[in-house]
């Protein structure tokens, strides 16, 4: 089951915004009004006198406002005891500083001629003040542009106590959440069957949020809503709680790790890195940044030749029924089926059936080799199984266990006097044995369940290969796959989801897994497999239970360690519930968000920015020296086919309440049944997905909600998508001048576009088909330049808590660093659409439009991190630290050097031999 979506700070997704106009023609009446004021050749009209007074007042207010910020900046610099202006000074934690106000002039730029027209609207004044407040004008922009653009912000911001980072992405996400929360809380409660579509949607939104926020009810009902799920598994497959528990010879568990975990345990950096890599590759397929095709590939072999152990029909039927139940509810067990486009076929938009390996409850396979983590995980699974056993059948479990425990105590007391132990009155297998209390039985079973899951995880291939389409595209006939999966009746299984569809082929992402998993299932005892099924079910649905419910508490205990959360830290319930709102009725919330924070004009403008960038890139392709003519022509063809999407999806149609109502018509939302709401939503989502099997994908559908602060490029769909949630300041605002919009949002758009033309994107042609369209010569030339970027970024670093340098892994961040260089295309697009205009300036910012373009770009990467977090990220994140994303990109960009007249050899304009260029 998909848990509520976490917020993201990945650059591959920012943007969205408000209303207003940004066309230079719209400013002509304003310029004429100012000319009239200062033209002595004729008397002023009454209207002009009013405008003149208003304008002068605005100028006075803006001047005072700017002076305040400038004075603050000046005093702040005087009070600062120490400041490192080195171009290689990475950002770390900042603290809040109280300052005194003084009025001083603001230093101007180091080069260029500023434009004359000045915008004095309140929006422009506030924007200008924000930019000024964030700057440190005492730093030479050619030495350290990040400090120049963001030094003031770095000195004034504080990381919230419950977070490890602060920055622009978090500010946008928090603001979006505030907007949605305000919308929800303003919805009046209404009942009845006569509500129109708009109000019916709003009531579902309000009821979903309220059901999640009612923690008292969730804690009171406890595990009760979950029990029908676990009871179905137990009735269909069999019990996991056997008394006595069979001996170890039935199924050998792992090494004894009891006691390996202690409360002072800290995850090793290697495990954190492994988990981050899994997450990266898990999303790489859709993001189109999985790297070059692997040199080695699993040989496509006949699955009929993969002889598997025989499994009885009775057991096969039980497993099939149980798996269909679990998978329909989003619970990953033994195998996973997915509905995805047939990238290797002639039409990637046709949705086909894919088979994936199963994944474990720990982040990566490396975690199963870490004794303290395995010990912790086993104790969590034991706690979950015990909690379910105690609650699901009180008559047969709890009463009996009380008798067993008392009898055991008596037996221990009399053992010294009775040579053969206590003369138990109960014969047969139900006779309690020493060490067979419920707690001990579940501890023993959990060790076997985790050991089985460890073997399942090890049977699969690495994520790096699994998510690479060249490696994972292995189509087989339906009958071959059915024969190879000895424990699953595939026709019966599929009838649960799509009874009228019988696919002729199934794409198996890792063929050897089928034989391995069938062998494991054949050899595992039923009670262990039953415990595995129930544990997977509980771990999936634990987040939908009250925070004080035992199953939820157990999973939270595991999360705290895996995520580095301080023990006992209480979740922010509002954030939790807003994520659940996204996960269940997200399009309703998305529609309301768009109505509040987006506009049709912003959508049109965002699309224009993207098409302008695509056009600039298309025009540049033939002149790229390392790309031969054949590859350049293919790239142009692909650029022409790119489909930009901005703001919100049209399937369901976010602009129409009737479309949203129909989308959720089968979803019942009960204010007093949060768990049921989550379960019904999961069933509906899975039903929708399976209904697409064998059909063309609806091109109006998205993979993200409108309120999401993110963006993505989809290789098989040839789409670059930018939700309204990321089109917000500091990424975008419709009223901003073009140089700010193209510098911030344009940089994000160009980043996603560039992914379509790197060594990953080169594996998909203009129709989204898995086809190589680069020549070998172009591939070699690209790799040579990519290594230049990797070596350059490997010299960048962050500081650990002791002040030591921890360097960036330039190979890990290579794909994203190259995508950042797409800023050059955003700059070219801006210059192409505004070649002769005279854009207005902002008050108090005596900079050229070119310089403000780059200031806007740098503001996107405002971020500070606690040193330990910065180190963890530099070891695991495929994106470079934000500081270096700004610095590294601009050091390689001649347009920036020219805009600020940076001399060769300066911090921001290294010698040519130390620069890299691809696009």
TrEMBL record:
What keywords sit in the KW lines? Answer: Hydrolase, Membrane, Metal-binding, Metalloprotease, Protease, Transmembrane, Transmembrane helix, Zinc
Q: Name one GO biological process term.
A: protein processing
Entry protein name: Endothelin-converting enzyme 1
> Matching Pfam families, A to Z?
Peptidase_M13, Peptidase_M13_N
Q: Which family does it belong to?
A: Belongs to the peptidase M13 family.
Domain of life, per lineage = Eukaryota
Molecular function in Gene Ontology: metal ion binding; metalloendopeptidase activity
Q: Which InterPro entries match?
A: MetalloPept_cat_dom_sf, Peptidase_M13, Peptidase_M13_C, Peptidase_M13_dom_2, Peptidase_M13_N
Start and end residues of each Peptidase M13 N-terminal domain: 141-233, 310-649
- Positions of the UniProt region annotated as Disordered: 1-31, 79-109
- What stretches pass through the bilayer? 50-71
Per UniProt, residues of the Peptidase M13 C-terminal domain are: 710-916
Q: Which GO terms describe its cellular component?
A: plasma membrane
Bias category Low complexity: which stretches?
90-105
Q: Which cofactor does it need?
A: Zn(2+)
């Amino acid at each position: 089951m998909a848990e509520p979506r976490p917020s993201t700070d990945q650059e591959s997704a920012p943007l969205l915004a408000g209303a207003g106009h940004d066309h230079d023609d719209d400013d002509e009446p304003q310029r004429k009004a100012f000319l009239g004021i200062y033209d002595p050749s004729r008397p002023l009209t009454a209207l002009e006198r009013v405008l003149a007074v208003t304008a002068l007042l605005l100028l006075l207010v803006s001047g005072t406002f700017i002076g305040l910020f400038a004075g603050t900046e000046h005093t702040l610099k005087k009070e600062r005891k120490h400041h490192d202006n080195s171009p290689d000074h990475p950002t770390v934690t900042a603290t809040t500083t109280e300052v005194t106000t003084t009025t001083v002039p603001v230093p101007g730029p180091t080069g260029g001629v500023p434009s004359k027209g000045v915008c004095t609207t309140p929006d422009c004044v506030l924007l200008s003040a924000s930019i000024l407040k964030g700057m440190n004008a005492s730093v030479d922009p050619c030495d350290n542009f990040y400090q120049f653009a963001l030094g003031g912000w770095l000195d004034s911001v504080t990381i919230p106590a419950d977070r490890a980072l602060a920055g622009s992405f978090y500010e946008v996400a928090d603001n979006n959440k505030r907007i949605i929360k305000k919308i929800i809380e303003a919805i009046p409660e209404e009942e009845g069957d006569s509500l129109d579509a708009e109000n019916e949607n709003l009531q579902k939104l309000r009821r979903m949020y309220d059901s999640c926020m009612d923690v008292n009810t969730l804690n009171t009902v406890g595990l009760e809503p979950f029990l029908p799920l676990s009871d179905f598994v137990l009735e269909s497959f069999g019990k996991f709680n056997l008394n006595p528990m069979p001996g170890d010879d039935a199924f050998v568990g792992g090494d004894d790790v009891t006691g390996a975990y202690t409360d002072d345990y800290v995850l090793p950096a290697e495990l954190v890195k492994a988990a981050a890599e899994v997450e990266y590759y898990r999303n790489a397929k859709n993001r189109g940044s999985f790297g070059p095709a692997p040199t080695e590939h699993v040989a496509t072999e006949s699955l009929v030749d993969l002889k598997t152990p025989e499994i009885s029909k009775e057991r096969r039927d039980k497993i099939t029924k149980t798996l269909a139940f679990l998978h329909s509810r989003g619970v990953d067990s033994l195998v996973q089926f997915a509905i995805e486009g047939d990238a290797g076929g002639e039409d990637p938009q046709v949705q086909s059936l894919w088979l994936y390996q199963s994944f474990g409850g720990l982040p990566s396979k490396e975690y199963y080799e870490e004794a303290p983590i395995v010990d912790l995980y086993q104790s969590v699974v034991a706690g979950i199984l015990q909690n379910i056993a105690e609650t699901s059948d009180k008559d047969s479990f709890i009463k009996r266990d009380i008798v067993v425990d008392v009898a055991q105590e008596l037996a221990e007391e009399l053992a010294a006097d009775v040579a053969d132990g206590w003369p138990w009155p109960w014969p047969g297998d139900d006779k309690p044995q020493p060490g067979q209390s419920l707690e001990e039985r579940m501890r023993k079973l959990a060790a076997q369940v985790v050991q089985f899951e460890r073997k399942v995880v090890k049977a699969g291939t690495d994520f790096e290969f699994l998510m690479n389409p060249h490696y994972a595209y292995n189509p087989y006939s339906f009958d071959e796959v059915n024969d190879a999966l000895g424990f699953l009746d595939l026709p019966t299984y599929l009838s649960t989801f799509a009874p009228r569809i019988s696919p002729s082929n199934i794409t198996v992402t890792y063929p050897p897994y089928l034989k391995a998993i069938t062998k494991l299932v054949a050899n595992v005892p039923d009670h262990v497999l039953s415990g595995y099924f129930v544990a997977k079910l509980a771990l999936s649905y634990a987040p939908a239970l009250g925070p004080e419910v035992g199953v939820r508490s157990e999973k939270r205990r595991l999360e705290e360690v895996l995520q580095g959360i301080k023990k006992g830290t209480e979740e922010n319930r509002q954030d939790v519930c807003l994520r659940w709102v996204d996960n269940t009725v997200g399009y309703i919330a998305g529609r309301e968000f768009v109505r509040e924070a987006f506009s049709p004009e912003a959508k049109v403008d965002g699309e224009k920015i993207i098409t302008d960038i695509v056009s600039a890139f298309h025009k540049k392709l033939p002149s790229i020296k390392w790309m031969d003519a054949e590859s350049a022509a293919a790239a142009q063809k692909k650029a022409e086919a790119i489909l930009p999407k901005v703001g919100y999806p049209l399937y369901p149609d976010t602009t129409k309440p009737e479309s949203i109502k129909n989308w959720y018509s089968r979803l019942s939302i009960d204010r007093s049944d949060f768990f049921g709401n989550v379960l019904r939503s999961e069933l509906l989502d899975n039903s929708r997905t399976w209904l697409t099997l064998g059909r063309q994908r609806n091109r109006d559908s998205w993979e993200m909600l409108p309120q999401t602060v993110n963006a993505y490029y989809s290789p098989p769909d040839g789409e670059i998508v930018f939700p309204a949630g990321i089109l917000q300041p500091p990424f975008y605002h419709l009223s901003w001048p073009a140089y700010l919009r193209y510098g911030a949002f344009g940089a994000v758009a160009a980043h996603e576009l560039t992914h379509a033309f790197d060594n990953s994107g080169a594996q998909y042609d203009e129709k989204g088909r898995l086809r190589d369209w680069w020549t070998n010569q172009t591939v070699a030339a690209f790799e040579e330049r990519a290594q230049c970027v990797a070596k350059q970024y490997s010299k960048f670093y962050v500081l650990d808590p002791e002040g030591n340098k921890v360097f960036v892994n330039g190979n890990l961040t290579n794909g994203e660093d190259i995508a950042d260089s797409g800023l050059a295309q955003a700059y070219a697009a801006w210059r192409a659409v505004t070649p002769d205009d005279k854009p207005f300036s902002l008050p108090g910012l005596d900079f050229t439009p070119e310089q403000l373009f780059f200031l806007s770009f740098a503001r996107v990467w405002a971020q500070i991190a606690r040193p330990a977090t910065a180190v963890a990220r530099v070891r695991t994140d495929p994106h470079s630290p934000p500081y270096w994303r700004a610095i590294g990109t601009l050091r390689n960009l001649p347009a920036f050097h020219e805009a600020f007249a940076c001399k060769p050899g300066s911090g921001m304009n290294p010698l040519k031999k130390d620069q890299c260029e691809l696009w």
